[in-house]
């Protein structure tokens, strides 16, 4: 059995893998030349993303373990992956991303942007603030991450509503809408958190009309994928103050280009795709992969299998 690790943290993954499975052959690197050399006889790949054209060279590939919760990077290769099991790290990032989301909501509610500007100007100001308790949080995507955010929001005393592909009751969520009722959720929310997977159905699902459905006093927080939101429409909505502000960790193009108007908007916080980067990221990935590898060796079903019909 040969495991191909293709990742910018390839050497760390390799070290952890070989400590746990010294009997397994591991090839680790992150250049296209390396990928071309080793994908030919690899049985398993541990990757985030890679040039999909390389799949034509794979002769023995049976399983791809993604190091991310999302799997949109493989959607274009679905047809050629029908005989390959694909698993992800769904659920691994939920607690950290929920931390980030509540930090974002507190910062937006208290307008820490203005408070920081006051500090820089040595200006002593004062204003009244409403508590988060009683506010309505709309979560677009109620998977493991959205579910954890909902659980915490309930503890904060917030009214939680959400959108789910297949609307079913979720603990802590007062009402679950289908995707066709997205604008209903948007119009009722004080905070909107984008936590959906990126699929052909969710691509730019929040556009001009959806942003117009939001309250003028509401905030958008994106901890999912940039392409779920029409970035040009969002910039326009923020410039025209049709929504109060945004906290963004995902963008259509990453890194965010220096010329993007988002950098200059005073009602926007930008973070460099850090919401899900765990300090012990590599160890957590190997914990999930290692459990699945034990299952693979025992002929048991793998956890976190990607459902290509859903796209995640």
The rough form would be described as elongated
Q: Taking all residues together, what is the mean pLDDT?
A: 97
Runs with pLDDT <50, length 5+? Answer: none
Biggest sheet strand line-up: 8-7-6-9-10-11-12
Report the radius of gyration as a whole number of Å: 21 Å
How helical, in percent, are the residues?
A: 25-40%
Strand content: 15-25%
Name the structural class: alpha/beta
- CATH homologous superfamily annotation of the largest domain: NAD(P)-binding Rossmann-like Domain
Summary keywords:
elongated; Rossmann fold; 12 strands; alpha/beta; 16% strand; 7-stranded parallel sheet; 312 residues; 5-stranded parallel sheet; 9 helices; single chain; 31% helix
Tell me about this structure:
The chain has 312 residues and is of the alpha/beta class. It is built from 9 helices and 12 strands. It folds into 2 domains: 2-91 and 279-298, NAD(P)-binding Rossmann-like Domain (Rossmann fold, 3-Layer(aba) Sandwich); 94-270, NAD(P)-binding Rossmann-like Domain (Rossmann fold). Strand 6 (136-140), helix 5 (144-155) and strand 7 (159-163) form a beta-alpha-beta unit. Helix 1 (10-20) packs across helix 9 (281-298) and helix 3 packs across helix 5. The longest helix is centred in the last third of the chain and has 18 residues, at 281-298.
Give a brief outline of the structure.
The protein has 312 residues and is an alpha/beta fold. The protein is 31% helix and 16% strand. The protein has two domains: 2-91 and 279-298, NAD(P)-binding Rossmann-like Domain (Rossmann fold, 3-Layer(aba) Sandwich), CATH 3.40.50; 94-270, Rossmann fold, CATH 3.40.50.
